[in-house]
Write a structure and sequence with these properties.
There is one protein chain. About 0% of the residues lie in helices and about 45% in strands. It has about 200 residues and is mainly β. Strands 5, 11, 12, 17, 18 and 19 form a 6-stranded mixed β-sheet that branches. Strands 6, 9, 10, 14 and 15 form a 5-stranded antiparallel β-sheet that branches. A hairpin with a 3-residue loop joins β7 and β8. The chain is elongated, with a radius of gyration of 20 Å.
Length: about 200
């Protein structure tokens, strides 16, 4: 949902991932009103379009049957100031985003996308400070059919405006943790980002 008021957009991310939309803003930075304000309607005003959100995707780095992927404690609303970017909030509202693959789950090969296309998270750009409760929870069945749930904190990480991030989730030696690793052009926690 968005509400444009003056030079700000108050934006709330839908809790239904498939209904999330990209937010694209346009500016005419460097152009003066006097350049185009002489009553001449036929002039073209150059606009620069930019993605205002962060696209977040997930892959699984090992073969398993996934029952659920949860991304918890994520800032769900914010104010975008045209020409300046996102306003920093000291106590933003948060939401959880769930990808439910059903009780029996869905089988995934190693390095296969868990989320893609309409299942891409379109999130408010944000930094997860020290002490943040934001985390990723993967519920899956291993090769023996044993149900496991593993969790990783997003503490200290950043989602930058206009970027696309793909996290590859790997199973660690301890079945109670997740680690994220950089693989073949994918972006992981805290690494270099690629543009949208």
């Amino acid at each position: 949902n968005s509400n444009i008021s003056g030079k700000t957009i108050n934006y709330t991310v839908s809790s239904n991932v498939t209904q999330q939309q990209d937010l694209i803003v346009a500016s005419w930075t460097g152009v003066k009103d006097t350049d185009y304000g002489n009553g001449i309607q036929s002039r073209t005003i150059p606009l620069v379009f930019e993605h205002a959100l962060t696209a977040v995707k997930f892959k699984v780095g090992f073969a398993c049957t996934v029952t659920k992927l949860e991304v918890k404690g994520i800032q769900s609303s914010g104010t975008y100031i045209l020409g300046s970017g996102w306003s920093k909030s000291t106590s933003p509202s948060t939401d959880d985003y769930t990808f439910d693959f059903g009780e029996n789950g869905a089988g995934f090969a190693a390095n296969e996308a868990l989320t893609d296309g309409d299942n891409t998270l379109m999130m408010i750009p944000q930094t997860f400070p020290v002490g943040s409760n934001a985390n990723v929870v993967l519920s899956y069945k291993d090769g023996k059919g044993i149900s496991r749930t593993i969790t990783s904190s997003l503490e200290g990480k950043e989602w930058e405006e206009g970027k696309m991030i793909t996290y590859t989730i790997h199973e660690s030696n301890a079945p109670t943790t997740i680690y994220f690793d950089l693989a073949a052009g994918d972006v992981t926690l805290g690494s270099t980002y690629s543009g949208m």
